[in-house]
Amino acid sequence: MAHIYDTIIIGGGPAGLSAGLYAARSKMDTLIIERSKFGGQTATTDELENYPGSIENCTGPELIERMRKQAEEFGTKFAKDEITTVDFSGKIKKLVGNKETYEAKTIIIASGAYPRLAGFESELELRGKGVSYCATCDADFFTELDVAVIGGGDSALTESIYLTKFADNVTIIHRRDQFRGAKSIQDKVFNNPKIKIIYDSVVEAAKGDEILEGLTLKNVKTGEASDLKVDGCFVFVGYLPISELFTGKIKLDEAGYIITDEEMRTDIPGVFAAGDVRQKSLRQVITAAADGAIAATNAEHYIENEFDELHV
């Protein structure tokens, strides 16, 4: 007979690790399944100055490592596998992965989100050849070079500041006439002599055959085109939920985010969602961790109410 976990958590980012900690600490038989690298987007974040308590230059990888160790100390188990099929129709939920099949009384989906493409010409062709979506991963390749950043939110502004540690010049390209990021981060951008800003503009195309050599820009108000010579281009224009696996299995919104209530419950009893994959207004490490704690606590309540431990 297959082993039946109390809860299986899909995804090893802050939401998943927080859920694992709370579930295991409540003596639930807990497994976290991660298909790639634990930590998700947080593992590629250089600074976490807005995470409570992170006052000693805490980095994303450092925080994730502490979270994972803490969850493991309480008994959380970990598996590296990619889930390809889910069956939520029965009381016992089934997950089929590339390596094996898993069963659990409850499922917590914490699969996260991935960077959205900007959509300019040759973006995919030059991805990894000057076009990047992770400053922490690739900034050192552009030491003493010129780079551009596309976007105007917190991520774009924060990563622009980080890039100034390596690049000679950082040019932020934003389609609007003002940023959407936090005012405190904007102030740092405006006061950084290495950062230049081009408002009301979008990138139409990337230039270069084997490696990025520059960008073609278009002013959205005047229609005027211009060229910008850069060695690197970092794209931060939002994210898309990693939820394709659950299409037709649970309720999603038009953008593909999982719809839950405030207790992280989906429309399928025993299936919960937490973190960036969930429909919500704020996607930050702290809200992902909170989601995970709530999901695990309610998964425990669900088991207590729905299962007779003598027969299941």
Automatic annotation (TrEMBL):
Source species, domain of life: Bacteria
Signal peptide range: none
Keywords linked to the UniProt accession: Disulfide bond, FAD, Flavoprotein, NADP, Oxidoreductase, Redox-active center
MF annotations from Gene Ontology: thioredoxin-disulfide reductase (NADPH) activity
Residues of the FAD/NAD(P)-binding domain: 5-292
EC number: 1.8.1.9
Catalyzed reaction equations: [thioredoxin]-dithiol + NADP(+) = [thioredoxin]-disulfide + NADPH + H(+)
Cofactor field: FAD
Cofactor binding comment, as recorded: Binds 1 FAD per subunit.
Top EC class of this enzyme: oxidoreductase
Family affiliation: Belongs to the class-II pyridine nucleotide-disulfide oxidoreductase family.
Oligomeric form and interacting partners: Homodimer.
Name of the protein this chain belongs to: Thioredoxin reductase
